[in-house]
Each structure stands twice: as structure tokens, then as C-alpha cells.
Amino acid sequence: xxxxxxxxxxxxxxxxxxxxxxxxxxxxxxxxxxxxxxxxxxxxxxxxxxxxxxxxxxxxxxxxxxxxxxxxxxxxxxxxxxxxxxxxxxxxxxxxxxxxxxxxxxxxxxxxxxxxxxxxxxxxxxxxxxxxxxxxxxxxxxxxxxxxxxxxxxxxxxxxxxxxxxxxxxxxxxxxxxxxxxxxxxxxxxxxxxxxxxxxxxxxxxxxxxxxxxxxxxxxxxxxxxxxxxxxxxx
Length: 235
Fold this sequence. Notes:
Elements: E1 2-6, H1 10-22, E2 26-30, H2 41-44, E3 54-57, E4 63-66, H3 68-79, H4 87-117, H5 123-144, H6 156-165, H7 179-189, H8 192-197, H9 212-233
Parallel strand pairs: 1-2
Antiparallel strand pairs: 1-3, 3-4
Helix pairs in contact: 1-3, 1-6, 4-5, 4-6, 5-7
């Protein structure tokens, strides 16, 4: 049994999708990020960085893994699935996993902050991060012209990138002119394990929407950003 500490974010959903794909039994513990539950001492004992997701593998002497990419690798290697056995195939999966960890995730995260959450709309910052997201999306689209999935068969690389790219509208980035990326998004979304995983836990809002619920969600996130700024400035 695996204990999953998570929230309804792309990084959290990466792990719930993988657990569903691998049919591994797990218990979900949803943390309230607005209440800073991830900063409580009990959780910092699990992940000293105070971020979700994290897992505790009860079947492996309560082994703890944090950082979503590291968790995906651990689960794939534990089960021998969603990653090839040969060194070259494994490297290809890891390369595209790192592409998400070092590029897609950070750039979309910053686009979200400046486009959705930051109290002041700084056009240069919004353009910078949305533009970088677009560049990375074009890389994916070009690669997917000749590949059904990112690294051979469906793998943890697809799961990691998909969990973020699917929220592109929330980052204010359009993909209408990227047909292979759209094909890939739809193909993965159709998987039953993916459909279940993105609801473990369910998002508070539809990140594709532009309605009052979405605006309220953005307002709450903006409040968290402002509180973080105040703490850093000593206010």
C-alpha cells in the first residue's frame, strides 16, 4: 500500500495518474494548500521542501519519495512498467521527463503566476513566460509529428508532460495551430486510468473555464501569492 500526499495540481495528478495506470493500491491524503498544511511539521518530516506530492511506500519499510519526477521513476522502476528496460529506451523516457521537470512545469507555473495570480499585470513577464510555453509546446508538437508518444510506448514521460500541458488555457496559451499536440492530448485523455487519476483529488475548478468559479479560484491563489510576498519582505 502506498500513501499519497497530494492536491489537485498538475504535479499531484501526475502521481495519481501513474498509480491508476499501474493499478497500485494507494490511500490518498489531500492537503489543503491554502491553509499551508504542506508546511506543517508532520508533513515536513515527509518532505522537507514542503511541497506536494510525496509518497510513503508502506510495503517497502515506509520508504519516502518526494519530487514528482522522482516519484514517477520510483513507481515505474518498482513495477517494471511505463519505462523500458534497456538503457537507451530508459534514457529517452528520462530525457522527456526532465523536459517537463525543467521546462514545461516551471514555465507554465510562472505563466500562471503572472497571467492569473499576480496582483499587478506585468506585460513583459506575461509575454516572456507565455512565449516560452509556446516554444516548448512547438517542440512537443514537432516531435509528435513522427512519434505517437514522446519516448516509444506510452510512459511516465507522457504522463508528466500531459498533466501540465492539458491546463494550457489556464496559462493563457493557445494550441489551436499545434495539431499533433492536440491529438496527443486527446489520445491520452481517453485512457480510463487518466480520467480517474485527474479526479484524485478533483480540481476545485475547471482550468479550461473562464467563469465565476475560475475567477474565485484565481483570487484565492492571488491572495496566497501576496501573503508570500509579505513574508519575504518582512511585512
